[in-house]
Specification:
The structure is a single chain. By secondary structure, the protein is an alpha+beta fold. The chain contains 2 helices and 7 strands. The chain has one domain: Beta Polymerase, domain 2, CATH 3.30.460.70. The protein is globular. It starts with a helix and ends with a strand.
């Protein structure tokens, strides 16, 4: 996963409101991983400090289990739990400013044209 993320430049793309958002970053990162035969999937998350959700990409690793990647920055998160803050893998004292996780939808499906996502 680490070598793939180092060579993949999805995180270099520019955020464009209503045109290229976290969903697009996530869809592109998953598509690129699958081109390299790496299993990855989109995870939709809701937070208590945000009205809208956020899309992450999950990877199954041999050493840490499932690791969530922020597709806009390649920051890694793990041990994600409802009711807790999302904290970085490298430094667990640094947590996201999204707030506490209120809902997690694994294996979210998204429409590339509309950016709409849903749980199958």
């Amino acid at each position: 996963m680490n070598s793939f993320l180092a060579s993949d430049h999805t995180n270099w793309n520019e955020w464009i409101d209503d045109k290229y958002t976290c969903v697009n970053f996530a869809m592109d990162l998953v598509a690129n991983a699958r081109k390299h035969n790496i299993e990855a999937w989109i995870v939709g998350v809701l937070f208590d400090r945000s009205e809208t959700g956020h899309a992450f990409v999950a990877f199954e690793t041999n050493d840490l289990g499932v690791v969530w990647i922020e597709p806009q920055s390649d920051y890694a998160y793990y041990a994600v739990e409802v009711g807790k803050f999302l904290c970085y893998t490298v430094d667990t004292s640094i947590c996201s400013d999204y707030g506490k996780v209120t809902k997690v939808d694994q294996h979210v499906e998204c429409d590339a044209k509309t950016g709409e996502c849903w749980s199958p």
